[in-house]
Design goal:
The protein is built from 4 helices and 6 strands, in the order ααβββαβββα. With 141 residues, it is α+β, with helices and mostly antiparallel strands. The chain has a 6-stranded antiparallel β-sheet. The N and C termini lie far apart (64 Å).
Length: 141
């Protein structure tokens, strides 16, 4: 190795070190903000209330899967245009022509099947449990 190659390696090492000094603190700050926000009671409450405001109703005109694997997202299309994400358990029980109704301010969606059966889905279960669990922890302290 000649002197110029050694100098280039030294400069490259110095540049990498300086980049690390810049990007590592930025990454730490972003992770800290993310963790704080996801554990914030106000954030959890806002997410729960936002999901509770969701409203939809109509006749199921199509069903769609985003992929051919177990955890692929599944959707129902209402009235030919409105797409709603649904859990696998519901997806495999509903058929085209069934009706669905979820009122704003409520946690449950009602699926009225053509065979007379009614399915009830707790749409906000996880958001509500997250919020209430964090709320109970905060009130204990």
């Amino acid at each position: 190795m000649n002197e110029s190659e050694q100098e280039l390696e030294k400069q490259e090492s110095e540049v990498k070190k300086n980049l690390a000094y810049v990007f590592v603190p930025i990454a730490i700050i972003l992770v800290t903000i993310s963790i704080y926000q996801s554990n914030s009671l106000d954030y959890k409450r806002e997410k729960y209330l936002e999901s509770k405001k969701t409203e939809f109703k109509g006749k199921i005109t199509d069903k769609k899967e985003d992929g051919d694997y177990t955890r692929a997202p599944r959707f129902m299309i209402l009235n030919g245009s409105y797409q709603v994400s649904i859990p696998n358990e519901i997806y495999y029980q509903i058929n085209l022509g069934d009706s669905v109704y979820k009122e704003s301010g409520k946690d449950s969606a009602y699926y009225y099947l053509r065979n007379g059966k009614v399915l009830i889905e707790d749409c906000n279960k996880y958001a509500r449990e997250d919020y209430l669990e964090l709320k109970s922890k905060k009130t204990k302290n």
